[in-house]
Amino acid sequence: MAVPIYQVDAFTAEAFKGNPAGVCILKEPRDDAWMQNVAMEMNLAETAFVSRRAVGDFDLRWFTPAVEVELCGHATLATAHILWETGTLSPDTRARFHTASGLLTADRNGDRIELDFPANPPEAVDPPDGLLDALGVAAAHVGRTRFDYLVEVESESIVRGVAPDFGNLKRLGVRGVIVTAEGETADYDFVSRFFAPGAGIEEDPVTSSAHCALAPYWGKKLGMTEMVGYQASKRGGVVRVRVSGDRVILGGRAVTVLRGKLTDT
Fold this sequence. Notes:
CATH class of the largest domain: Alpha Beta
Low-confidence stretches: none
Largest sheet: 18 strands, mixed
Shape: globular
Number of strands: 18
Oligomer: single chain
Number of domains: 2
Helix content: 10-25%
CATH architecture of the largest domain: Roll
CATH superfamily of the largest domain: Diaminopimelate Epimerase, Chain A, domain 1
C-alpha cells in the first residue's frame, strides 16, 4: 500500500524559502530502518513520521538522512500544517505530539502555527579546543545546551559571514553549533545560523529547536519575553518566539510544495 508523503517549507510564507521538511503519514508505526531509508531518500534536513494515537494525539519521530534526532521544530510545524491541510485534524483542534522530547503541542493562531516546546537555555562554558578556530570567529560568549554549543559574536555581519570548517566542527561531539548576534535593524531582535555536521547537516536553514535556546538566552539579555528571530541561512526564515516559564512558544507559517506517495517497499 502506498504511503502519503509531503514536502513542506516551514517558517516561511513563500515556497522555496524557510526550511523544507518531509512529512510521512503512517497508518501504523514502521521499523527504524525503513524510516531511516525514507529520510535518506528524501535527503532533507529532517523527515517526520507521524501516526495517530487518538483524536488529536499522534506519535511523532524525526530522522535526518543519517540519524534519528530527539527534537525538531520545523518538521513538527510542517507536520501540524499537513494534518490540518489534509483534514486529518480539524482546524480548531490542537495537535498533540508524543515524542522523544516529551509532549509537544501545536495550535493555529491566525495565519501562523504556534508550537509549545521545552526551553533549553545554554549554560556558560569555556569554548572547547577547536570550536572557535573551526568557526573562524572571536566569541563574546559561549554556552552549551542539551544538544549544541551557542556562540554569541559581536555583530550580525559576522553571523552572516561565518564559513565553518565542518570537519573540525563534527569532531566536537555535539549535534551542532548556534552562532548568533543581536539584530542590527528593527525587523529582528536577534539573528542566528545553525551548523549541524554532527547530525549529517552542514547548515540547517531554519532551526526551531535552536530557538529553544536562543529565546531564553536573548530574552534574559534583552529583557524581553516576545522576540522575532531571523535565521540568516541562504534560504532564510523568521521565527517568532515567546518565553513562558520553562517553555518556548515558536510561531511561523508553512507552505506545501510537494504531495506524493511512497511505494511500500
